[in-house]
Amino acid sequence: MKHRFVQLLVLMASLAGCRNAEPAGNTPGSNLSAPVIKASFTHADKAVIDRYESAIQSFMERTFGTRGFNGSYLIAKDGEIIAEAYLGYRDPVLKDSELQEHDAFHLASVSKTFTGMAVLKLWEEGKLSLDDELSKYFEKFPYKNITVKMLLNHRSGLPNYTNYLDVYGWDKKKLATNLDVLASLYKMKPPIQFTAGKRFNYCNTNYALLALIVEKVSGQSFPEYMEEKFFVPLQMNDTYVFRPEDANASLPSFEANNRRYGLEFMDLVYGDKNIYSTVRDMLKWDQALYNDSLFKPETLQAAFSGYSYEKSGTRNYGLGWRLTELKNGKKIVYHNGWWHGNNTVFIRLPEEKATIIMLGNRYNRNIYKAKQLCDMFGDYQQSNNLFQDMENEATVSVGGGTD
């Protein structure tokens, strides 16, 4: 496989003027690339750059050395790319097209970061209240006392459509939509999991309904709203919400044994998943959350605050974002994703303004170990967590899974 490789720059004086080297050739028996060190990364001396390069390459080798990695990753500090690589193929069986910068991956549940912020944008503009009950948007909604905020922070108690649709007899030959998910709550009447607001329970139904609320309040389809408010202004040119017409052109996903997933009955529901993007576009999304041009500071504060403290521990959930809140005051703002063969990780370290993005389209649970890379930037105590996030936070579903 062709590898992207850049020679480590020796002197800071030469950093600003040098260009990246051309990609090097194959390394026998490996699909791992040396990190790409960008010449524009000017915030560190040679020793720091050495440390980053060594840590990233060591992580890739020990994490994916035996199983391989089919996807892309990007690590940045202060908005400048430290390391970036595109490893593998659009189709790891045919191997006829190597992954490139503009190949957009299914973000799976990382899509929730966009849906959550879309709702908060409408709240910021005074077009909805987080305390609105769902009956305001869905006439005679069959579950009582559930608010928009409870959808955002997963405290609604609603049943998860990725679990109950099949159990309650959904015809798998019919592709379900967001409106079908809403209708199923009225028709199938799956039981509420607990009294609204009582506790946290990760549920994809919450975000499928939030996408419908975005549509009702904005008067636009969810894909149109996301393009107008986020993707176009931020020049996220390779990012889109999946629609049926995208089925043939979108990046496919694969099981670990390389069996390709086809279009399945829950694959048209968006809001909880179904946004496609690239690592570079996700860096643009990350950077947009550091200034006041897109959101007010109080909106970001609401998004990145925890709302579930009934159990002790470091893990929590904001409004569309997972949180790790350490006793030493450090906070990791992130989201994982899993749908079919897609595994995704989007990590933000606001204190250091560092970003870790890893996107794969062939199932590989090792991708969730990317959180260990946080320790490059500070005392985040993640290097020994192994599969903690995957084991403790995953919700297995009929359709292939979501985090």
Short summary:
Residues 1-21 form the signal peptide. With 403 residues, this protein is of the alpha+beta class. 26% of the residues lie in helices and 13% in strands.
Structural class of the helix and strand makeup? alpha+beta
Q: Please tally the β strands and state the result.
A: 10
N-end to C-end Cα span: 30 Å
Global shape: globular
State the major sheet. Answer: 7 strands, antiparallel
Domain Beta-lactamase-related: 71-364
InterPro entries: AmpC-like, Beta-lactam-related, Beta-lactam/transpept-like
Signal peptide: 1-21
Keywords: Membrane, Signal
Descriptive report:
This protein is an alpha+beta fold and 403 residues long. It folds into 2 domains: 12-87, no CATH class; 105-345 and 362-393, Beta-lactamase (3-Layer(aba) Sandwich), CATH 3.40.710.10. The protein contains 11 helices and 10 strands. The protein has helices at residues 12-15, 46-64, 112-124, 148-152, 161-167, 178-187, 204-218, 222-231, 279-288, 297-303, 388-393; strands at residues 71-77, 80-87, 105-106, 240-241, 275-277, 315-317, 322-325, 331-339, 342-349, 354-360. The chain has a 7-stranded antiparallel sheet, sandwiched between helices. It has a 3-stranded antiparallel sheet with strand order 3-5-4. Strand 7 and strand 8 form a beta hairpin. Helix 3 packs parallel to helix 7 and helix 6 packs across helix 7. The radius of gyration is 21 Å and the shape is globular.
